Amino acid sequence: MPSATAPEGWVLGRVGGAPVVVAPTSLLLGALIAASWYPLVSSALTGFGILTVLGVVGLTVAGVAVSVTLHELAHGMAGTALGRRPVRYELYLWGGRTSFGPSRSWRPWKDVLTSLSGPATNLVLWALGRWALGSGVVETVPAYVAVWALTWVNLALAAFNALPCLPLDGGHALAALVEQVTGRPRLGRQVAAVGGLAVLALIAWRWLLWPLVVQGTRPGSFQLVLAVMVGWPIAATSWRVLGLGRGGRAASRVDLRELAQAVAVLPAAAPLEQVRARLAEGAALVIVLDGSRVLGTVDDQDLSRLDPPPGAKVTAGQTCTVLPAVAVTSQTGGPGAVSALARAREVSRWLVVIDEGTIVGAVPTGAR
């Protein structure tokens, strides 16, 4: 999604015009991975110096980052091949997010392929690692330990991301598949959210209850941290999609995507004539971008107030109205969507709706 509505981070570079952004929390997560991996590497490399051990640990953490990056780039390549270009890549070390621009001919089955391309990439990396370990290409013990770790990390990334629960790739694929078959996007999300509750039950059993009930031991601190890191986004998403909690049932029937009107996206340098053309073609709102950053919006009401002198070269960036951050939401349904619409109404005529990183439309707020 545009940087104006996404978490801040460090821009590593651009791929196909889309910025690759690393979240600051990646440093903390990298430290956690390094701390958990260090004892295992140290025991596997008995007789080697501490610099070698630290080097293998660092190489492993860097390899995880590369694996996650390739995972997200695979989403972008698949989306581009199917007709929807990525506008932003976000990396969090344990995962990431690829955000896409709008597409007029997008179908749910394309979401299935785009979502599964990431786990498929990790499976390819796992297969390459298995080949490297078995072919004798890796000759030194430290290198073997690093490659072995990254091989199984990629298998874990593929399996975990393929789980049928939101917000993971498998959940998005399941939701899109149900939508493709039934034509009911809300049902697809609800099915994937129920899958999330099932995955939460498995996480609680395997990492918390199994040690307590079966083994008679307390779960380790790393297990607890991992369970919270993995389970929290799944729980929050399932809770929101299913509309659980007080007042949630009524609010859960609100779906901003069903209320959203078509939008068009233009660069800031686009001439005013192109803005008029997009609105005449049926777009209710034109979103103006400066690179990947949302500069503002233009609608028919904005155009009615313009009176440029004859022959003046006016651009979209010069005529757009600033879009406040609260006028953009990724909460498409439930109480979060209702609250987002109420907040946007105080500052904007439109609430831009983003679903799974894609701008799907804009909802009129009723403001003047």
UniProtKB/TrEMBL annotation:
Gene Ontology CC: one annotated term: membrane
> Where does this one sit in the cell?
Membrane
Per UniProt, the keywords (alphabetical) are:
Hydrolase, Membrane, Metal-binding, Metalloprotease, Protease, Transmembrane, Transmembrane helix, Zinc
Question: How does the protein associate with the membrane?
Answer: Multi-pass membrane protein
Q: Which residue windows are coiled coil?
A: none
Membrane-crossing segments per the record:
12-38, 44-68, 145-166, 187-208, 220-242
Question: Which Gene Ontology terms cover its molecular function?
Answer: metal ion binding; metallopeptidase activity
Cofactor(s) demanded: Zn(2+)
The protein's matches in Pfam families, at most eight in alphabetical order, are given as:
Peptidase_M50 (PF02163)
Q: Which domain of life is it from?
A: Bacteria
Domain (Peptidase M50) spans 147-200
Which GO annotations describe the biological process of this protein? proteolysis
Family, according to the entry, reads as follows: Belongs to the peptidase M50B family.
Could you identify this protein by its name?
A: Zn-dependent proteases
